[in-house]
Known about the structure:
Elements: H1 10-57, E1 60-61, E2 68-69, E3 84-90, E4 95-98, H2 107-119, E5 123-128, E6 134-144, E7 147-157, H3 159-207, H4 225-273, H5 279-309, E8 319-322, H6 323-337, E9 342-346, E10 353-356, H7 358-375, E11 381-389, E12 394-400, H8 433-443, E13 447-451, E14 460-466
Parallel strand pairs: 9-11
Antiparallel strand pairs: 1-2, 3-4, 3-7, 5-6, 6-7, 8-10, 11-12, 12-14, 13-14
Helix pairs in contact: 1-3, 4-5, 5-8, 6-7, 7-8
Amino acid sequence: MRWTARSLPIRLKVALAIFGISAGTLVLMSLAVYAAFQRQLRENLDDTLLLRASSNLQLVDFGQSPPTLNVSPDPGSERALGEATLRLFDANGVVLFDDSPAAPTSAAERSLVLDAIAAESDVVRTIDLGSDEDFRALARPILRDGKVTGVLVTGIEHSRVNEPLGLLRIILFTAVPLTSVFLALGSFWVARGALSPVARITATARQISHTDLRRRIEGVTTRDEVGELAGTLNEMLGRLAEAVERERQFTADASHELRTPLAAIEASVDVTLSGSRDADEYRETLEEVGGQARILSALTRQLLLLSRLDSDEARRDFEPINLAAVVEACVATFGERNPAIGINVQGTALDVEVVGDADLLARAIFNLLENARLHGGPTVRLDVTLERQAAPHVAVITVQDDGPGVPPEIANEVFQRFRRGDASRSRGGSGLGLAIVSAIMALHGGSATTSASGSGTGACFELHFPLAAR
């Protein structure tokens, strides 16, 4: 298996990221500490060297030329420069005094002396002996009557700097990798603990199938992001379960509604074909079959419309619409088809503009008018009102009939699919008219509502439209 950054577990990614960040940070900090420590050691060494040179200068006898030192060298000394050295040179660079004769004068040291003579001032330099040893040396010229008569060289072994720096390098080279590894392991452990609920959520989600949507993710009680994730997934599963249940119920209801006219057609055909029939009987059967076929056709068109409304495809035809003109056209068409129904219309003179599909909005209004016709009183009268509301910024269409009203027990169900107020189905209708109204309003960002009365004062339906921005 080829490992890539995307295929690595999150806990491993977190551990590697922390390892890289901590290692980089520790390396930079170590370099900064090392540089600061090295600079401080060298400054301390130079300060010590300066004090020692000033002290050695007190030993110089300035009364003689060339000058001399009031000390005697140790002929038996075997130290190679030792911790500190003291040498006196004349103005030509010849050694006059050496407290460590076992250590010969190097070319670098002679160059230091000549530079001090030429500069007539102190010269500080690190002298490399060509081996593992080196020392820090200060050459101070001795002046008499404005002329250089000699040079006093004071040196301190550089091990005072090298040894602490070497120890610091060992510490840093050991501490940085170990600390980075410990941080990576710790972060891996913390990430694994923090993400363990996610693993449980994943395992539970895999076990939940479309036939077992009642299960929920349990065992996650934290109030952090993982807890929010579990809660959100449970809410999503709840909505998904409700949607699946509605789909199952819709499928069952649709099958039942389709089966009724199909069964009627089948029964009529079977009865007709069971014996000899005259032309009138055949005609009667065909008319009955045609009526049931028209019912099937209307039901199929309504189902297709609902399917279209459930998708975003219907939004493609949205445009600014004069809602008053749509209401006026719907009422006029309905009045022509139902001349016996009195309709009182108000508000069509208003300038009310919404964004939507004019045909769909007309369908929603017409369905409310048709519903009022089916469930109104013996002499149906309708009040259709269009008004604007400032807060919220909506337009409202009200359709009021003079029928028995909506029973309170079904007021919350009238917009459900295949829900009929007349359980006997004696008044016709497919039970999809108000469901289509609700779907159209939802597509337009509005809503359809009704008030429950059931007291004979009539049913009142309202359509709420968000007004178009101007």
